[in-house]
Design goal:
Largest sheet: 2 strands, antiparallel
Order of helices and strands: HHHHEE
Number of domains: 1
Structural class: mainly alpha
Number of helices: 4
Number of strands: 2
Protein name: Gypsy retrotransposon integrase 1
GO molecular function, one term: nucleic acid binding
Strand content: under 5%
Length: 127
Amino acid sequence: KDKTQWHNYVKPLVHAYNCTKNDTTGFAPYELMFGRQPRLPVDLAFGLPLHCKNFQSHSEYIEKLKATLQESYKLATKNAQKMAEKNKMRYDTRIKPSRLEPGDRVLVRAVRLRGKHKLADRWEADI
């Protein structure tokens, strides 16, 4: 529609992303940040309670939150490691090792470039 109003959509989109389960970690970023499921407008529409757990004290709440977050971090790390291994295996099945022989032409990255060099050649022709 009106592309000049894009900034009005950033916050709702970020919130939607943060409330969506991540395939790699298995958790929504919101859960890993706050230690609980987000409360969404759809929860009110279905009549779900806003306060699920009653705690006796603030310290009890803090202890429970700390334990929940630690367990979530452990699971998210384990899930991310499993996904990284799976992605590596998938990548390794498609990659073919290359053999270089003396005299083969190769590109050498020009590492001396610093700063703004958008249009500069990133590869050296001669060594």
